[in-house]
Amino acid sequence: DPLRTPRSHRTASSVVGLGRRSTMAAQCAASAVVSRVAAPRPAKALKAAGAAPVRSATHRARRVGGRGVIRATGAPKDEDVVRVPRPEYIPNKIDDPNYVRIFDTTLRDGEQSPGATLTSKEKLDIARNLAKLGVDIIEAGFPIASPDDLEAVRNIAKNVGNEVYPDGYVPVICGLSRANKKDIDAAWEGVRHAKRPRIHTFIATSKIHMESKLRKTPDEVVQIAVDGVTYARSLGCEDVEFSPEDAGRSDPEFLHRILTAVVEAGATTLNIPDTVGICLPEEFGQLIAGIKANVPGQYVISTHCQNDLGLSTANSLAGVANGARQVECTINGIGERAGNASLEEVAMSIWMRGQEKIFGAYTGINPVYVYPCSKMVREYSGMAVQPHKAIVGANAFAHESGIHQDGMLKNKQTYEIIAPETIGYFRGEGDVGVVMGKHSGRHALKSKLKQLGFPLEGDELNEMFDRFKLVAEQKTGGVGDDEIIALVTSGAGQGDDTAITWKLDEVQVVCGTMGLPTATVKMTGPDAVTRINSAVGTGPVDAAYKAIDGLCRVKVDLVEYTVNAVVEGIESLAQTRVSIRAKSDQTMPGAMMKANVQTGNVEARTFMATGADSDIVVSSARAYVAALNRMISFMRSNAETVAAEAAIDIVAEEEEEKKAAAA
To answer: What global pTM score does this model have?
Structure first.
């Protein structure tokens, strides 16, 4: 069994378990209606033997939902979710040997996904949701990449990194850096404002990387790593993580040597990346066990597994089974190439089987926020989730087979090992409430949106209500939950600053087999002036986009365009997803280019957005305008950041000149 540790490494907890019967019986509680989400205490290690006590079936039943029973009427209020207790945070050790830290790198590695670009506000929103979810460490970005990335990390550190929950929890805010002073300085400037800052530095250690990419000898690589960790500690950072890039293909003896050296230099966490996703679970588990046995000192072992062979979750769990006590992962598994280990898969695997099969392992994740986090990342990043994705895919809790449906009608536990309410997914009218239609009022829509995880107030609610009524009046049979979600997420995250946002007021097209497709659009600009423009194109959507371009005057290339029906039937809403980037034939500021941390390649940033409407052309226009707003907002915020930093530099230079003159 690739997930099993050598017998000598096992604790008494390896033989403690409830068995599948009590696990399945526990799920029966998911349909219960209670007034409060109750969370049990995590297993406390028996001090002498390091074992976790046996949990009763009742105890297991209570944890369904956000570590508790979810009210069948909809999502619980934040104040009703009792957060999972966790050991006191100490950088280089964990008092409870069964506790596994969750390190989320959605905002850093996840944003390296081709086509994914997040604005500063979107990153802050996601970071706040990650804190609700209960991740231990948030890797907020790669500060040296651009002034905007640095500002985003700094913003998260100042806000999310200082928002202490009533139970004392506050996430560690981490910044990535290569092992050089310039990178480390930028990372420290970004994270130092947090209550718990961390610098994560790395250098490649595999033969192919050292020879072909770095062109360094092993001795030089060791020295660079030690110098980097030493410098990070000298800045006052007491929490330093080191990663030997491409550890999965590195020589184990050299790996042990460099890891020992960085621990002696002050590294508190050793992150072991399977950078190209080549390891099998058994060999990755052995790699972790070898490090634990051969690298002396006080530190936490971490895993970072890419998904090139589809084994990232399995490898991460193998790492935990062999002594790793931190797992690096991303929401929805987004990331370089085939992506990273999926946070929801790793966390729910440990939640379901950690006590029985991984020697008492548990995390501080509050599962009821898993699905809302997944939705936010999906909409903000523009990275679609495949329907059959484990835990959060559209089909994860869908049953079409007649045999399966029969079993589900008799007992939901026949084909569902996790109740959807457990991860914050509330399906069906029995869970969410009323059917929304053209006679529904503003209060009913507000209540429905809150139950679906989108609490809106004020102008946002008014605008959403107007759009909802337009759609509801054209549909028979009401507006479904999926269609409401499509409407509310249409154009999500258009920009951080509403003062520089274009608004689509009206669009009209003429097309067919006679004459040229023509579109007329009416838009309100950032200066609050309403303008009208017309254009012809190869089709109605192309004509509408050209008319919009004529008003916004931003030169872009359309990289991707897709349209899908939200639900079945001719009356379904259309949801459009577009991806744009600045035209390559113009000079672009540095911030409009995105550097790949691992390869060093530079490519133009892309901006994605979605739109929804009962009319395909209107849906397409909404998505396009939203993408343009994201791009314009990003350009404006980056220009302001650069100008502010330039002003600071000028003031500093003037002060130096005054001091020199006085001397």
So the answer is: 0.74
